[in-house]
Amino acid sequence: MESVVIGINFGSSNSSIAVLAPNGHFNVIANADGERMIPSVVGFSGDEEFSGTQALQQAVRNPKNTLQGFRKLIGKKFEEIKISSDVTHPDMVSKDGVPAYKVSFKDQEHIFTVPAVVTKQLKHILEEAEAYLGSKVTGAVLAVPTYFSEHQREVLAKSAADAGINVLQIIQEPVAAALAYNFGQNPAKGDAQDKTALVLDMGASSFDITVLSVRSGIYTILETAHDEALGGDAFTDELVNLVAQEFKKKTKVDVSSNKKALLKIRTAAEITKKQLARSASAPCSVESVAEGLDYHGSINRLRFELASTKLFAKCNQLIEHILEKSQLTAGAIDEILLVGGATRMPKFQSKLRDIFPETTMRLDQESDEAITVGCAAQASLIAGFEKEDIVASTKENITVTPHTVKPIGVVGSNDEFFTIIPNHTPLPAKRVFEFGQAAAGQQEVYFALYEGEQDPLPPKKEKVEKVDIGSDDEEEDEEEELPAKPTYHKTTLLAEVVLKDLPAGAKAGSLHIEATVHVDVSGKTSITLREKKSGKQVRAESA
Amino acid sequence: MVLDFLLPSPPKSWSADKTSSFHAKITTPTKAAIEPVGRHFLAHARRHIHSRTFSEDEKVVSEAEAAARSAGDGEQDNSDLGDEPEDPAMLRRDPKDWKDQDQYAVLGLSALRYKATEDQIRRAHRRKVLKHHPDKKAAHGGLHDDGFFKCIQKAFETLMDPVKRRQWDSVDPAVSDSIPNAKSKSDFYKSYGPVFERESRFSNTQPVPQLGDANSAQDQVEGFYDFWYKFDSWRTFEWMDKEDGEGHDSRDDKRYFEKKNKAERAKLKKEDNARLREIVDQALSLDPRIKIFKEQANKQRNAKRREKEEAEQRAAEEAAAAAAAAEAARIAAEEAEKKGREDGKKNKELLKRAVRKEKKNLKALIKDNNYFLPAGQTAGPAEVEKQLEALDALLDGAKGLDQLESVRQTLEDGVKNGNIAEVFKAEVAKRSA
Ligand SMILES: Nc1ncnc2c1ncn2[C@@H]1O[C@H](COP(=O)(O)OP(=O)(O)OP(=O)(O)O)[C@@H](O)[C@H]1O
Ligand SMILES: [Mg+2]
C-alpha cells in the first residue's frame, strides 16, 4: 500500500496537520472553511458531539459541556491536577484515579476520561486529514513538549492508537520546530555544521524555551525551561481586564467576578489581540456583556503592551535564566527559532531583539505551524521504514551517546583558538577542514590539535530596568554593547602531525591541505592530512 | 569548510623522522541523548546498527541509491507516465476556470508535456478517470463534488484536439521560454542543446536538426544554423485571447474583441520570433565549433600560402645549388690538371735519380769486381779504361730504369756465378748494338 503520512501538532489550544505537497514543501492543510488551526476542543450539545471549530463556537453558550486544555492532563493522576470548578468549566471527577470530565449529553450524564477525550480530538484530526487527502492516512508523527514524561507519551500514543492513528513516532516539539526551520540540516551547503539555537515556543498556555545544539545535522537538547503561567492566554487575560475596566467606566457595571461575562469578553479579546499584532489599534465588540449591555470599543496596541509589561518582563527573565543555566552568552546563540502563535506579538519580538541584537531571528515559517511542519517532515523521512526499525532507532543504545565536553581545535600564531569539533558534539564525530600553508615554498606542514576551554563570561552588568512605557523612544540609549561571541583558549595539546614532501614552489596559502579529524565514541582521535592536488597524505591515530 | 588559518612548518625541535605524536586524550565524553529526528540522525542510527564508519556508510548508501534508480521502473505498463502526486490545491480547482488549469498536470503528465504521445494521453486520462470518477468517490465518502473530474475531462478534450493542443502547448507556462544567459560559463552544448530541443516542438518541418556536439561535422553545423535562421514556427497565441464579455452580443462589441485579440496575437507572435532569433544569434556567437571552423579555414588558407612560398624558395635554392656545384667541379678539374702536371715533373725527377743510382751501383759493382775482367787478369789502367768505356756504352744502350735494373741483375748474377767477364762482354755486345 502506498504510504500517506502526516504530521500532527496536537497543541493544548490548537491542533494542525501538515502533509508533503507535490512541490516538495510541507504544507499545513486547511479545512473547508480555509482554517488551518483546529481548536483542541471537544464539545457536547444536545444529541451531538463536536470537535474543533464547532466545539469552540459553543464554548460561551455551553461551557459546562465544552472541554478544553485536556492535553495538559494527559497521563496525570486525578490528585495531581488543579481543578477550576465554576460555571465556565466542566466538572471533573476521578475515574480509577484518572481525571475525567462529567458532561451531559443525550439527556444523560456521561463520564469521559482525559485519554478518551484526547482520542476524540485525534480522531477528528485524522478525519480532517483523510477528507483533505482523499485517502487513508497510513502513519503520523506527533510532538510533545520536552517536559512530557515517558508515561505521558505512552498515554498519548495509546489514545492516538485508539483514534485509529498509526503513530510512527512521537518527537519533541522544539526539535520538530527545528526540523521545520531546517535548522542546521544542510551542513554541506554553506550552512555551518555546528550551531546553537534558542527555540522560543509561546503557545496559548505556556512558554517553553529550549537551547538546542546541532552538530553535523544531529540535535541535542542542552537545556530547557518553561513557565506554565506565561502564554497567549495570559496576554489575553490582560486584554480582558482592560476591556472589563473600560466596560465598568462606561456602564458602571463591574464584571470582574462575573465569570460568564468575562468568558464572553475573552472570545472577543482573543480576536482583538491577534489583530493588534498587525495594526496599532483594533476594535473589540462584545454583545450583551452583562445586564443586556454591549461593549463597543477599540484597543490601542500601546495600551495592551503597557498592560502586559509584567508578562513581557517575565519572558525576558526566563530567557536570561536559561542562558545563565546553560552558561551561554547571548552572542553564543546563532539562531532564534520562533514557535507558537503568541511569539507573533511585535513587542515580544522587539524585546527579544534587545537581548539578541545580532542573532538571526527566524521568521520564515509560520510560528504556530512550525511543529506541525516538522512532524510532517519527520513522518515523510521514516514513512518507508519498518515499524521495528523506527522503534530500534529510538532506543537508548542509539540515542544516548557520548558527547564532547570541550571544544577541540587548532591555534593560530596569535594563540587564537579555531574550533574544529565544538563541545556538545555527539560521538563518533568527523570534521573535515581545509587549510593553506603559511609560507611560500614550504614543503612540510605542522598540524597541532588542542583541547580548549571557553574564556570566562564577561561579568554581567546590572541592568537598570527602565520603566518601559512601551514606547519606542529608546534612541538615547548609551552606546549599546553587543553581546560577546564566546571565545576559547587552548588548554591541552592533544596531538601533532606533520605532512612532508609537499609540492615544491607553491605560493603561501596556495596548497589545499585537508585535515580530517575523527573522534570515536571512546574519545580516540585520528587525524588525516592530505594535500589535495598531489594526494600526499599522512594518517595518525591515538593509541 | 575552509578555516582562515595557515599551517606552519614543524617547530625546530621536531625530529625529521617523526610524522606524529599524541600527547593527551580528550576530556572524558559525557553521555547525553541526541534527538532521533532528521536524516542526519537516521544516518547516525544506520552507522551504529551496522557498525559502519562514516565513509563506509556513505558508500553503502550511494550504492543503494544507484541500485534503486536502475531498478524500480519496468513492471507496470504505465510506468512511462510516472507517478505524479496530485497537488491538493489542483484537486479543488473550479472546473469553470479550466482554461487556466495546467492541462498536463491535471492528467498527471507534467513530466512529459508536449512530448506526450496520443497513446500516453489516453492512458493517463483513463488512469485519472478510474481514480476520480464521481461515483467512485462518493462510494468512499469523498467530500468533493465532481469538480476535478470535470477538469480531467476538459484537459483530455484539449489535448486530444490537435488544434487546441497546439494552442495550449504554445502557451504552456511550465515549459520555459527562457534564453540562456550569454555570459554564463556553463557548457555550451549542455545549456543550448535542451533549448533547441525544446524550441523544436514549434517547427512545421520535422524532424528538426539538433545542436549536436563538439564532434559534429561542419556541414551539419552549418545546416543547423541555416535551418534555425529559416525556422518556420506554428506557435500561436489564440489561447490568450480575451473572452468576449458576457452580454455583449452586439456585433460591434464582438468585432472590437476580435480585432483586439488579433492585434495582441500578432504582437506576441512577433515577440516570439524575435525571441527565437535571439536564441539562434546568441548560440551562433557562442558556438565553439564555429570558432574552430573559422580557425580551421584560416589555417588552411595560411597553409596553402606557406606551401607555395616554400616551393618557390625550394626552386631558388635548387638553382643556386646547381650553379655552386658546377663551379666546384670546374675548380676541381683545374686543380687535378695542375696536380697531374706537377706529378709528371716529380716522376721524371725520381726516375732520373733512380737511373743515376742504378748507374752508380753498376759503377761500384765493376770496381769491386776487378773491372769485370776474367779472373787472374790484372787490371791495368788501359784495361780499366777500356772496361769503363764498355760500361758507359752499355749504360747508354740501356734505356730506362727497367733495362738498367735488368742489366744490373744480369751482371750481379754473373758476379755470383763467376763468369762475369763473359756476361759483361755479352751484355755490352747486346745493349750497345
Ligand atoms: N497574531 C497573533 N498575535 C498574538 N497572539 C497570537 C497570534 N496568533 C496566535 N496567537 C496566540 O497564540 C496562541 C496559540 O498558539 P499555538 O497554536 O502555538 O498554541 P498551542 O500550541 O495550541 O498551545 P500550547 O503551546 O500552549 O500547548 C493563542 O494564545 C493565540 O492567541
Ligand atoms: Mg504549542
From TrEMBL, chain A:
Residues 456-487 are annotated as: Disordered. The keyword Nucleotide-binding applies. Keywords: ATP-binding, Nucleotide-binding. One of its GO terms (molecular function) is ATP-dependent protein folding chaperone. This is Hsp70 protein that interacts with Zuo1p. Residues 470-481 have a biased composition (Acidic residues). Belongs to the heat shock protein 70 family. PANTHER family: HEAT SHOCK PROTEIN PDR13 (PTHR45639:SF32), HSC70CB, ISOFORM G-RELATED (PTHR45639). The keyword tRNA processing does not apply. It holds the Pfam family HSP70. GO terms for cellular component: cytosol; nucleus. SUPFAM superfamilies: Actin-like ATPase domain, Heat shock protein 70kD (HSP70), peptide-binding domain. Residues 458-469 have a biased composition (Basic and acidic residues). The gene is SSZ1. InterPro entries: ATPase_NBD, HSP70_peptide-bd_sf, Hsp_70_fam.
UniProtKB/TrEMBL annotation, chain B:
One of its GO terms (biological process) is regulation of translational fidelity. Residues 74-87 have a biased composition (Acidic residues). Residues 102-172 form the J domain. One of its GO terms (molecular function) is ribosome binding. Residues 63-73 have a biased composition (Low complexity). It comes from the Eukaryota. SUPFAM superfamilies: Chaperone J-domain. Residues 53-62, 306-317, 332-350 have a biased composition (Basic and acidic residues). It is found in: Cytoplasm. Keywords: Chaperone, Cytoplasm. GO terms for cellular component: cytosol. Residues 1-22, 52-97, 297-317, 330-350 are annotated as: Disordered. This is J domain-containing protein.
